[in-house]
Amino acid sequence: MAASACRELILKAAFMCLLKLAFSYSFRSCTEDADSNHKIFTCIKCHEPDIATIVSDVYPTATNLTVSRSNTTYVQGRSFYHLSNLTSLVLDSNFISKIHKDAFNNLQQLKTLNLSCNNISFLHRDVFSDLHSLTELILESNKLNNTDMFLFSKLTNLKTLDLRRNRLKSFSALVECITNLSSLIKLDLSNNKLTTLNHSHRLPESLASLNLSYNNLHKLGCDKSFLMYVKELDFSDNNKLSSETFRGLNLENIMYLRLRFTDVCVFKLLIYTNVRPWSVDFSGLKLKDSRALSSLCYLLRHHHHKTQHIHNMYLQANSIKALKNNTFCNCPNITGIMDLSLNDMKTTVCLRFLHGQYQLESLKMEHNHLTKLLPCSKTKKLYSLRSLSYRYNRILQVKGFAFSNTPKLTNLELNINIIAYMDHKALHGLKDLVTLRLDNNLLTDVYNDSFEDLTSLKTLNLRNNQIAVIFNYTFHSLSNLTILDLGGNKITQLKPHAFDGLHSLANLYLDRNRLKEIDSGLFGKLHATLKVLDLEANHIVYFREHALSPFINMSRLLDLKLDAQEPNGINLLPRAFFRGLTSLKSLYLTNNHIIGFGAETFDDLKSLELLTLDNSCAGIAQLYPGIFKNLRKLNKLSAENMGIQTFSKEVFGNLTGLKTLHLNRNAMISLDISLLDSLTNLTYIDMRSCPLSCGCQNSDLQNWTLTNKKLQFPYLFNITCQDHPGSYFHNFDTNVCYLDIELYLFSLTFTFTILLTLIPFLYVRLYWKFKYGYYVFRSWFGEQWRRLRDQEEKYKYDAFVSYNSADEDWVMEQLLPNLEGSCFRLCLHHRDFELGRDIVDNIVAAVYGSRKTICVVSQSFLRSEWCSLEIQLASYRLFQEMQDVLLLVFLEPIPKRQLSTYHRMRKVMLKKTYLQWPGSNCSDPSSAKELFWNQLKRALRSSNTGNQEEQKMEENDQRRQEKDMEKGEYFANQTPTDKEEYYLMP
Question: In total, how many domains does the chain have?
Answer without folding.
Answer: 1
